[in-house]
Amino acid sequence: MKVLGLGDNVIDRYTHTGIGYPGGNALNFSVYARLLSAKAAYLGVFGDDSAAEHIRRVLEAREIDISHCRVVPGENGYASLTVEQGERRFIDSNAGGIRQTTPMDFVLNDIPWLRQFSLIHTSAYSYADALLPGLGALPGSLSYDFSDDFDAAKIGPLCRWLDYGFFSCAERSMEETRGILETAWQAGCRLPVATRGAEGALLFNGSIWMSEPPEIITPVDTLGAGDAFITAFLLAQVKGNTLPQSLRQGALFAAEICLTDGAFGEGRPY
C-alpha cells in the first residue's frame, strides 16, 4: 500500500520547553502511515531555514518519499503551543509561513506519480482546496481533514470530491455534529467522520450511525491524536477492514501517540 500526505508541514514550538517538533496534519499522516508499515510519501512546500531542514532530515531518515516537494526561500511554517496536564493548547502561528505565498499548482504536474497512491490525504491548512477536483479524479481514495474551525458553507463544495471527510467537533453539540456529517454525506462524501475529544468518534455512512469511545489513558501530550486516529482509520479502510474495526484501530493508535512528546518526537531546541 502506498499513501500520500499532501499539504501542511510545521515546526510545533513548545513555549514551556523551548523544543520544536515536526508536525502538521498532512506531514503527520505520512509519518504515522509509515509507522503503521505503509509506504508513505509527503508532498508540500518547505522554507529554506533550519527548521525546514530539520523536518526534511527527519522524513528522509524515516524513509518517507519527499522527492516531489519544493523548497523556496523564506520561513517555514510554525505553531506555538504549550501542554497543560497532557492537553496541548495552541497559542499562535505564522499561518504556514512561506506556504501562504507559494502556489500549490505544481502538485498536479506529475499525474502518473500521483496515480500510484491508494490514498491521498490533505487538510484545511494545506492551501490545496482548488486541487480537489484534480485529486478526486485520480484512482485512489481522497481524504480531507476540515479541522475544528471550518466554514460550514464550504462543506458542500469540498465534500463532492471526497471519499473521507474528518471534522473536529469536540466543542460542538451532538445535534450540530450530526447535522455536519449529514450535510457532508449529502454533498457526496462517502464516509464523513467527526472526532469529539473525550466523547470519541462518530461516523455516518448514509444510513447507519456508528460511534467509537476513546481508549482511556493518561496522556503525556495530546498533540497529533486526531491525526493518528485519521491515519489508522484510513489505513484500516484501505486494507478492507470493517467500519467498526477501522474505528477501533483509530482509537488505539490515537492513544498510543498521546504517550509521545510532540506529534511523533524528533524534537530539538528552536
UniProtKB/TrEMBL annotation:
GO terms for molecular function: kinase activity. The keyword Ribonucleoprotein does not apply. Residues 21-124, 174-263 form the Carbohydrate kinase PfkB domain. InterPro entries: PfkB_dom, Ribokinase-like. It comes from the Bacteria. Keywords: Kinase, Transferase. Gene3D superfamilies: 3.40.1190.20. PANTHER family: RIBOKINASE, SUGAR KINASE. This is Sugar kinase, ribokinase. It comes from Rahnella aquatilis (strain ATCC 33071 / DSM 4594 / JCM 1683 / NBRC 105701 / NCIMB 13365 / CIP 78.65).
